[in-house]
Amino acid sequence: MQTILFLEWKSFGNAHMKQAFEKAGFTVDMQPFNEGDEDTRMSENLAAQLVSIIMSKKYEFVFSFNYYPVVAIACQACRVRYVSWIYDSPFIQMYSQTITFDTNYVFIFDKGTYLDLKGRGVNTVYYLPMAAAVEYYDTKSPSEEIKKQFGADVTFVGAMYNEKRNNLYRHLENLDEYTKGYLEAVMQAQKRIYGYNFLEKVLSKEIMDNVTKVCPLHEQGDGFETLEWTFANYFLARKITAMERMDIMKQLQERYEVHLFTNEKTPMLPKVKNWGRVDYYEQMPSIFKCGKIHLNITLRSILTGIPLRAFDIMGCGGFLISNFQEDFLDYFVPDEDFVYYESYEDLISKIDYYLEHDGEREAIAQNGYQKVKENHTYEKRVQEILAVIR
Hints:
The protein is of the alpha/beta class. The chain has two domains: 3-128, 3-Layer(aba) Sandwich (Rossmann fold), CATH 3.40.50.2000; 135-375, 3-Layer(aba) Sandwich (Rossmann fold). Helix content is 43%, strand content 13%. The protein has helices at 14-23, 44-55, 69-78, 111-119, 134-137, 144-150, 177-191, 205-214, 227-253, 284-290, 308-315, 328-331, 344-356, 358-375, 378-389, and strands spanning 3-8, 27-32, 61-65, 81-86, 104-108, 125-127, 154-157, 258-261, 273-274, 293-296, 320-323, 339-341. The strands form two sheets. The protein has a six-stranded parallel β-sheet, sandwiched between helices. A six-stranded parallel β-sheet has the order 9-8-7-10-11-12, with helices on both faces. Helix 7 (177-191) crosses helix 9 (227-253).
């Protein structure tokens, strides 16, 4: 039986992916990978440790969620294939020159990012949407007590992006008034537009010079990401997402019973029930099975991709309302499998409508569930990966 090395960090879906590999006939060696505590881009010591592990057994390939240059370096040295599946965007380590190694197979959930890298001449990347563990979710049957507890009009599961580690924009407090006003205008404009990201394109040299005076940014030296790309995706996109999610929650709390599941305290949302952190494997399926309407508000650095949250909502049989993301249209039919909104006003109008039309809401949720169950499971994705690498 063939064996793969699975580098395990605190990513969602580890257990589901391991099981899918095993169903495909592999033995899976799980190897702890402390990506948060190590220099996973340039550490020679970590690369050497990985080489030792890889060479200890004959592995068919090495797998990780997200892409790490030190793993690519180790696999290249051992001439073993490195299969990674990206579910974060932005993910700056993908822009390391190591991504071009011929032992890499980098699967990216966001078609916009995939096309960007292909356009730069990277031939080791492939488009692969996320998945849902429908078979596992089908085993979760919430009790009547849980249904009552989580049966809100509207739910949102996710970060609000106001916490310190995500709010990099806080480093720009000392910006000159002109640059600050320019960036605020850009963010307000982008916040109103779905389906097209222009942030990087409007950052002139003058603006970037002013930004780097108060917040020094440096290119890594081993990659092809620009300072403009880094600033747009890690500073501006996160700030816009924080603004957007807060705007939406403030409006919804005045009209509906809203449940929020996030790590952050939200005293500015007194009418929203904030349950705090949610356990991905045990609590999340019940939340998506019990609430009436589930929101997806996509992180603004995801160009066209379908976030994992959306697959999980549909895979649990929940009713999904999402902002517009182009990749949805490759697999799902709007108003048949899910619903998307084009503005805050449109979102409220559609929530009003579907709260009043239970039959239509439940039919759409069932359609989305069936499509995910048939076409978007981890088992299906493993077969798609194997078809490429073999």
